[in-house]
Amino acid sequence: MRFPADTGYAGLITREAAKVGKRLAKEGVIRTVCLDFVVVRSNGKWEPYAIEINLRKRRNHPSVFDFAISDRRHITIRRGAIFTAPNGQQKFFVASDHVESPLYRTLTPDDLFDIVVRHNLHFNQTRQTGVVFSL
Predict the structure, then answer these.
(1) Could you say which of 23, 48, 105, 106 is the most buried, measured as most Cβ atoms within 10 Å of its Cβ?
(2) pTM listed for this prediction
(3) What is the pLDDT of residue 102?
(4) Which domain covers residue 47, as residue numbers?
């Protein structure tokens, strides 16, 4: 997952997601919602397909990112699919729910955090950059 999405279709999926959000709100949904899209280029035009909707009790990757850089305030992604942090900087992220290698089998969670800190990749609230771990 990447955010923001490619500028060729970011606004398109944002508009489609807003339609779904409005409908869910009308139906009484008040939880975090995660929508997954596949976007296909057909005859030079982007076509979005919503393929999955998840109602969440807990935070997903984007909202963990949002929560981490927003100084514990929830921030809504603004029109145009741009996330702006409280300090005015535009923010971006890449998320994965599956990273695997046989080389990782001997690592403990403490090893992982040591490596991240040693290479200055840990999340830094002042800089509002770095790795955010979820799950």
Answers:
(1) 48
(2) 0.56
(3) 92
(4) 2-96
